[in-house]
Amino acid sequence: MVLTAPRSAEHVFGLSPNARSVSDFFSKPYVGHTRNVPKRFDTHLRGDGSSHTKRHLPEKIVYVETFESEAEAVKRERQIKKWSRAKKEALISGDMAGLRELSRKRSE
Questions:
Q1: Nearest to 30 by CA among 9, 47, 10
Q2: Is 107 left (phi over 0), alpha (psi -120 to 50) or beta?
Q3: Which of 58, 88, 95, 97 has a 20 to 30 Å separation from 16 between CA atoms?
Q4: Position 32 in a domain
Q5: Structural domain range at position 27
Q6: Which CATH number fits the domain that encloses residue 93?
Q7: Buried b vs exposed e over 76-107: b needs ≥16 C-beta within 10 Å?
């Protein structure tokens, strides 16, 4: 999947872990924000991005959302980071019905 996004905007992105080991297989998708998704992905591939991606090198970009301001992107990133692995995977796969159901279960 090739994802392109305007570089002047802010983006929330998701990276899938490279499942080379059991710990990587069970690792949650990584979520972050940046102005330049391809450049930030390259940083993570080199192991320079975050402590999580140093331990679980990412395989690919699986999700991108675009925002007009950094404040909006940070707010969304923080929201997604609080989610369960199942909710993140539903978002990444585009399963909005599943995402709503998981959200409803959490609030009950």
A1: 47
A2: alpha
A3: 97
A4: yes
A5: 10-107
A6: 3.40.1440
A7: bbeebeebeeebbbbbbeeeeeebeebeeeee
Asked if the structure places residue 5 within a domain, the reply is no
- Pick the closest to residue 45 from 36, 54, 37, 32 (CA basis): 54
The verdict on residue 21 lying in a domain is yes
* Predicted local distance difference test score (pLDDT) of residue 77: 94
Over its length of 108 residues, how does the chain's per-residue pLDDT go in tens digits? Answer: 445 555 568 999 988 876 554 444 456 788 999 999 999 999 988 888 788 777 777 888 889 999 999 999 999 999 999 998 889 888 988 999 999 999 887 655
What is the C-alpha separation between 96 and 36, in angstroms, rounded? 26
CA dist., res. 87 & res. 108, Å (int): 16
Instruction: List phi, psi (to 5°) of 29.
Output: -60, 145
In a domain, 85, yes or no: yes
Is pTM, for the whole model, over 0.70? yes
Return the structure tokens found at 36: 């330049």
| Count of structural domains within the chain | 1
